[in-house]
Write a structure and sequence with these properties.
Distance between the termini: 48 Å
Largest sheet: 4 strands, antiparallel
Structural class: mainly beta
Shape: globular
Oligomer: single chain
Radius of gyration: 16 Å
Helix content: under 10%
Number of helices: 0
Order of helices and strands: EEEEEEEEEEEEEEE
Mean pLDDT: 86
Number of strands: 15
Length: about 170
């Protein structure tokens, strides 16, 4: 019986299939290095939903545009020691993307790197980019009911866990 390719939506991705991104990388024909300004979109909604930091409430929400008044869609990506990444909202240290438990918010880096919820591991495979806080008990950044959340650690991989990083 000949092998037939599974549709992309049925492809199972194991953790071993992921390539850790721990250096500057190419995306959409452009080079993204530490200090670059980017926007982050759920892959199934690229160009229609953007990750937006609300600095007044220290929350993260999804918005329909990168244009004003959605200034929180402007993230500065920073490569940290150890190959982790931080996403600074509008370039501010006190407004970094943070994830703990199932909550995604804005926060400040801690002095203890192993417990820093603002340091993210960035992975890439054929499906796109996936992000996970460095803390082992956290799941992947995901889109659920129109909100950015951390998927459960043991949740199966789904399209909701894939993101597009676009130079701003």
């Amino acid at each position: 019986m000949p092998d037939t390719a599974l549709p992309h939506s049925h492809r199972k991705i194991r953790f071993d299939d992921l390539e850790r991104v721990d250096a500057p990388f190419g995306c959409e024909g452009q080079w993204i290095a530490s200090g670059a300004r980017v926007s982050v979109s759920p892959q199934d909604h690229v160009g229609h939903l953007f990750l937006d930091g609300n600095v007044h409430a220290s929350t993260v929400q999804m918005v329909p545009s990168r244009q004003a008044p959605f200034t929180g869609t402007n993230w500065q990506i920073r490569l940290n020691e150890g190959g982790t990444w931080s996403l600074l909202n509008q370039g501010h240290e006190a407004r970094m993307l943070a994830g703990s438990g199932d909550i995604v918010s804005l926060g400040r880096a801690t002095q203890i790197d192993h417990f820093d919820t603002t340091h993210w591991l960035l992975y890439r495979d054929l499906g796109g980019f996936r992000l996970r806080p460095c803390m082992r008990d956290c799941g992947w950044l995901a889109l659920s009911d129109g909100q950015a959340v951390l998927a459960g650690r043991d949740e199966p991989i789904s399209r909701a866990q894939y993101w597009t990083i676009t130079p701003f």
